[in-house]
Specification:
Elements: E1 3-4, H1 6-11, H2 19-27, E2 34-37, E3 40-44, H3 45-61, E4 70-71, H4 84-87, E5 91-92, H5 96-107, H6 109-115
Parallel strand pairs: 4-5
Antiparallel strand pairs: 1-3, 2-3
Helix pairs in contact: 5-6
């Protein structure tokens, strides 16, 4: 059994996370460190390798994203309904500006007439 230190995770396993993020991952149950001394911890290399292999297996199980699957709103149609051919598309991208405009219209409908 081989133990890896924090720097070994970065150099040997290419896990370039900060100590804080690594701690979050441990709290989420993805990693578990071994206490070596009051101010020293390490990770078991076999467990890290198993985690990396599981991540690779997850990647191969996910369906590939098909290019052109996302329909962008045509230029100049801000606030209008999506084109009919976009309705059948699996995904429709709405910009954050459009979301804010819709939220503002719900909150302050009287202001929308004055802004136009």
């Amino acid at each position: 059994m081989k133990l890896l230190g924090f720097n070994d995770l970065k150099e040997k396993k290419r896990i370039n996370w900060s100590r804080v993020h690594l701690s979050r991952q441990e709290k989420a149950g993805k990693f578990k460190h071994v206490n070596l001394a009051p101010q020293s911890i390490g990770w078991i290399e076999e467990e890290i390798d198993a985690w990396i292999e599981a991540r690779a297996a997850e990647r191969s199980e996910k369906p590939a994203q098909i290019a052109g699957n996302v329909v962008d709103r045509p230029q100049g149609s801000l606030g209008s309904e999506p084109p009919s051919e976009a309705i059948a598309a699996p995904l429709y991208r709405i910009t954050s500006a459009e979301k804010r405009k819709a939220e503002n219209a719900e909150l302050w409908p009287e202001d929308q007439g004055a802004a136009s």
